[in-house]
Write a structure and sequence with these properties.
This protein is mainly beta and about 90 residues long. The chain contains one helix and five strands, in the order βββββα. Helix content is about 10%, strand content about 55%. The protein has a five-stranded antiparallel β-sheet with strand order 1-2-3-4-5, with helices on one face. A hairpin with a 2-residue loop joins β1 and β2.
Amino acid sequence: MCPKISLEESFKLLSYDNVRADFDDGCVCTGNAALTFEVDEKPLEVHAIVTFSSEGKPKQVCAVHPPGAERGFIAELSAWNRMFCGGASF
């Protein structure tokens, strides 16, 4: 589990777990993780897509909106993706 990262007072990353790297096309370029955020004092678990550098270090961690939630509907996830994913489109 990682230290809490606070984007806003009401939004915190609580855990970054189950990181899995996928070997594809001769490299470990992408993977998956489970993120748990605290949004307005309630836990929110989401799937994340992770990209890795050529050295195998995480570059981007893109939170995927939960099934049934329209992209952009959860403003905090869009803010996370702007900061750690390079855009809010997930």
